[in-house]
Design the sequence.
């Protein structure tokens, strides 16, 4: 038997309760928008003294069974396009490999602060662009008064679907999309690349499926769970081969997140389609603020900026607080939208009922 | 039509899920030692455990919301 490679933490009751709560809200968001939660779970575990690599490994080990349950449940409501998910996941795996390799190179050349800076910059740049796009679309749909309708095709998706490349065309039935694999491959690849950089590939995958391929928001967010399952499963095997998975942490997270994901899945059946976009954009924009606050800290650690230690401490606390805020905001919007949808549904049923 | 609530299934899946978590914490040290071994088939253990827990606890959480009357709206 190999000697233990790493010291596993002694879990305190407070830690367990915190992980259950964060797991629950992370699951709620994942069930609703297809991903999310990982950006809070990993730093939360690290703040409990869990080594970074064990936190990442344990997070992945809770992610794939959670995504499996979420995908299974959303498939019951006809939201999942399994074929699209598997095609995207195939190229996402390549993206994960390249992303991990880039991470390794950055860490080798610039050390831990350099790696953190790289991750934070990726967060800020990618999420600002994507969230801006998603929010703009959600606001446009809301203002147009078409918020009850299914998503309309973006101009980009209309163009992508019109491109006929013989031998590469694929039909995705549930998403009702016929598109060349030459569009799905780079999209899946970017999803994997982002997943291995900031841990939430869905922030590219879901908007990509909506705006580039033309899949409805509900189908895109549900299909992302298939991609998350494949990436989480592969990642868990990789880390388990090095003995880095803390099964206790993973299963505690799973305990909370399975309650959350079931509720998130139920939530998707009560809300208007554009709410997926609202929740996604809100979370992404708050995460951008969080990571933006962390950038000066990493620049100071690299000797590029002069900041007082106390200021750095406050920036780190504020950064983590904004991560929590992002997750909680997502959870609150989902629950509020569910309640509103439930009330509207009940009212229309009463109106339809004969006197 | 009013659907009956799946109390027996909730209780059965709750017992299975609760027992799994109880075992995990009663044998915490032994399980961690085995699950972090890198030789032979030991690395498969976390993956197998994740599947087993997801089936048991996934069923329990689904029945939990159903018993509370929180169900998805079929379209």
Sequence:
């Amino acid at each position: 038997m190999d000697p233990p490679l790493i010291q596993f933490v002694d879990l305190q009751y407070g830690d367990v309760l915190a992980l259950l709560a964060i797991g629950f809200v992370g699951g709620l968001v994942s069930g609703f928008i297809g991903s999310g939660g990982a950006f809070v779970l990993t730093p939360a575990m690290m703040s409990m003294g869990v080594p970074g690599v064990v936190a990442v490994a344990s997070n992945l080990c809770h992610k794939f069974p959670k995504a499996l349950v979420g995908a299974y449940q959303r498939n019951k409501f006809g939201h999942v396009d399994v074929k699209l998910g598997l095609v995207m996941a195939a190229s996402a795996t390549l993206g994960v490999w390249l992303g991990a390799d880039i991470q390794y190179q950055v860490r080798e050349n610039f050390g831990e602060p350099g790696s953190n800076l790289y991750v934070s910059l990726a967060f800020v740049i990618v999420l600002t662009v994507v969230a801006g796009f998603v929010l703009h679309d959600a606001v446009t749909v809301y203002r147009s008064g078409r918020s009850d309708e299914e998503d309309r095709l973006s101009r980009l998706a209309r163009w992508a679907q019109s491109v006929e490349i013989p031998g590469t065309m694929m039909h995705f039935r549930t998403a009702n999309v016929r598109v060349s694999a030459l569009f799905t491959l780079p999209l899946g690849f970017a999803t994997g690349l982002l997943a291995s950089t900031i841990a939430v590939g869905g922030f590219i995958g879901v908007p990509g499926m909506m705006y580039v391929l033309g899949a409805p928001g509900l189908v895109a967010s549900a299909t992302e769970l298939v991609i998350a399952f494949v990436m989480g499963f592969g990642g868990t095997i990789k880390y388990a081969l090095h003995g880095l998975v803390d099964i206790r942490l993973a299963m505690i997270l799973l305990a909370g997140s399975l309650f959350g994901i079931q509720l998130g899945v139920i939530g998707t059946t009560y809300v208007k389609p554009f709410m997926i976009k609202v929740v996604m954009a809100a979370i992404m924009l708050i995460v951008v603020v969080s990571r933006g606050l962390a950038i000066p800290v990493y620049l100071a650690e690299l000797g590029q900026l002069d900041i007082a230690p106390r200021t750095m401490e406050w920036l780190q606390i504020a950064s983590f607080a904004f991560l929590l805020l992002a997750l909680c905001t997502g959870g609150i919007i989902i629950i509020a939208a569910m309640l509103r949808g439930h009330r509207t549904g009940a009212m229309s049923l009463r109106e339809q009922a004969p006197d | 039509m009013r659907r009956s609530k799946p109390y027996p299934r909730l209780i059965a899946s709750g017992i299975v899920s609760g027992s799994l978590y109880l075992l995990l914490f009663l044998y915490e040290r032994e399980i961690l030692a085995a699950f972090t071994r890198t030789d032979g088939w030991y690395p498969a253990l976390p993956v197998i455990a994740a599947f087993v827990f997801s089936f048991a606890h996934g069923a329990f959480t689904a029945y939990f919301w159903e018993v509370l009357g929180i169900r998805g709206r079929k379209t």
Q: What stands out?
A: Helices of chain B lie at 7-26, 28-35, 44-67. Residues 13 and 59 of chain B are 6 Å apart (CA to CA). The radius of gyration of chain B is 17 Å. Chain B touches chain A at residues 21, 24-25, 28, 31-33, 35-39, 43-47, 49-51, 53-54, 57-58, 61-62, 64-65, 70-75 (CB under 8 Å).
